[in-house]
Specification:
By secondary structure, the protein is of the alpha+beta class. It has a single domain, classed as Ribosomal protein L22/L17 (Ribosomal Protein L22, Chain A), CATH 3.90.470.10. It has helices at residues 16-26, 31-39, 45-64, and strands at residues 4-12, 71-80, 84-89, 95-100, 103-111. A hairpin with a 5-residue loop joins β3 and β4. The longest helix is centred in the middle third of the chain and has 20 residues, at 45-64. The relative contact order is 0.29.
């Protein structure tokens, strides 16, 4: 079994659907291509995922001694995190509840 390096970001303030759209762009790509793809993707989620990917690459190099040029993105997932419950004022002195969505983003890289 090949060595895998993993990085996770918990409670990221983005919905899982928006994060998964960006993760589809990098899944299965070489790590260097994935970094460039995320750098030029205009979505806000790309910034969060780029940080997680760079962390996974640093983990692979520092902890496992893997060559960064040979790494590929093996798994990239976004799971649902906790909701942040908030209230918005509306007419007649009332308030409507709404929920801020959060995600747990996981990126796993390995040599192929």
């Amino acid at each position: 079994m090949a060595a895998e390096a993993k990085a996770m970001a918990w409670q990221v303030r983005i919905s899982t659907d928006k994060a998964r759209q960006v993760l589809e762009l990098i899944r299965g790509k070489k790590a260097s291509e994935a970094v460039v793809t995320l750098k030029f993707t205009p979505n806000r989620g790309a910034r969060y995922i780029e940080k997680v990917l760079k962390s996974a690459l640093a983990n692979a190099e520092h902890n496992l001694g893997l060559d960064i040029d040979k790494l590929t993105v093996v798994r990239a997932t976004a799971d649902q995190g906790a909701y942040m419950k908030r209230f918005r004022p509306v007419s007649h002195g009332r308030a409507h509840a709404f929920r801020h969505h959060t995600s747990h983003i996981t990126v796993v890289v390995a040599e192929k």
